[in-house]
Write a structure and sequence with these properties.
It is built from 14 helices and six strands. Strand 3 (54-61) and strand 4 (65-70) form a beta hairpin. It has helices at residues 2-11, 26-33, 83-86, 98-105, 119-126, 135-143, 163-174, 176-189, 193-207, 211-222, 228-244, 257-266, 270-275, 279-289, and strands at 16-20, 38-46, 54-61, 65-70, 92-95, 116-118. The chain has a six-stranded mixed sheet, sandwiched between helices.
Length: 290
Amino acid sequence: MKLLNYFFDHFLNKKKIHYIDKDIKLSYVVDRLTNEENISIDTEFLWRDTYFPKLSLIQMGSPREIFILDSMKIPLEKLNILNRIFKNKNILKVFHSCRGDIAALSTIDGLSFENIFDTQIAHSIISSEGSQISYKDLVRKLFLKSISKSMTTSDWSKRPLQSSQLDYAANDVKYLLEIKRYQFKKLKSLKLMDFAYAKMQKELNIAQSSFTRARYERFLKKNKNSSKVIKELFLWREDQALRKNVPPNKIFKEKYLKKLNDAVLSKKYKECEWIISDEEIRKNFFRNFK
């Protein structure tokens, strides 16, 4: 199987790459992809200094072509046309670890998804190696191919993009359809297809929920015995971060939730002054918790 995949990659897996940086070309992309039964999707985004991710690129692949859409040059509102693909139940959208990508794509107003397949989730079901396999490791496992991840931390906000960045972005969708084809057969043979799709739909629902709700649910999953005050503090911090569009840790670091909880319960508010450094946010905190 691996040798056949290796042969396929080296001799047959030659896909034409299109770089799209003008919205007038979006109709062409959609027309090319709406007749496909399966397409692969990935994104590049920045999520360091903001509450919401900043979408940089959208990569979409068919068996013959890869389209790289520059969402920092194309107005976000113009990208709504992609709903003709994303909401089409007859097109299977293939991701690897969909949550971050769909969260980033959800910053485009009105965009939503139907009918996805997640290769990371599929791997967790058919393999005993664990659920969090990376795309790079999965490609190496199935294709005997080592793809570079040197551009992972590159600055995706700078333009023009380097050719190495575009190659990296294209590689992130190049193998997904073949991986899906292999996993699809495996899931069918194990009679686990319905189970897999149920897990993938659950992941999609989480990815498409509000950022605050998704963060809160992840927090509660890790901190099941949190007090009522800690829960209120967490949600207050999220609200402040959302209003200012900054990461929640810019309001105060999560490790200080317990200290703030103790300060509120004991009414020893002096502790709060160094934990919440911004004066305006600190005043807001006292209005809510003093």
